[in-house]
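Response to reviewer comment R2.3. The reviewers asked that we include at least one raw input/output pair. We reproduce the pair for Methyltransferase domain-containing protein here without editing.
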Amino acid sequence: MPNAARYDDVAGFYAAGWSDDVDDPASVRLLDLLGPLEGRRVLDVACGHGRISRALARRGAAVVGVDLSSALIEKAWAAERETPVGIRYVHADATEFGPSDATGPDGVGVFDAVVCAFGLSDIDDLEGAVATVARTLSPGGVFACSILHPCFPGGQGVSGSWPGDARYHGEGWWRADGERSTLRRQVGANHRTLSTYVNTLRRHGLWLDEMDEPEPAQEWAATRPDAARFPVFLVMRCVRR
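Raw output as returned:
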């Protein structure tokens, strides 16, 4: 199923469930890794309904958000029309984001930073997505991303990063079945090993500069103590060489 359709079908559910509050541990750390944003040009890949895009803009960045889901992009534009913060949203496949949008006349990337918040596992073509990140970044630019930890095995009612009847090393798209994994039951996800992510980044000149495994929020962990024993989130910062 094309991932445009996956999210078009759940756009209302997704926007209602993930508000503009960015005080969850993974989002806080993601924004921290970017450093000061005032005056910087930032691309938000798989921006969805614009939650992180708006957080970036409120911190002074000039933001472009791109997403494959027309339904989510429309929600992002609706928020921009209601409360303008200067974000430009583009309905496009991030793996084919055009050079005219992403590079200057000399072919060099025009963005100081690229962000992808929990979107890489939604993109079927990881190689294409990372190539776009590398192409759009200026030399020395930063790529920061957050993902469900590839090594997270799940817990009672919480699906992990790979199917419960499969192996960690078995990569591919799958749909969660955990009763508490409300989004992934509907849209699925691509499981990839940690080494696949890191090696793909390096292949495209994105060198891992810092990584973190923030613990989940206390209220989440309190009701999922078995799952909270394991690393749940992974946040990484890479530098474009």
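The first strand starts at residue 41 and ends at 45. DSSP finds ten helices and nine strands in the chain. Further pairs are available on request from the corresponding author.
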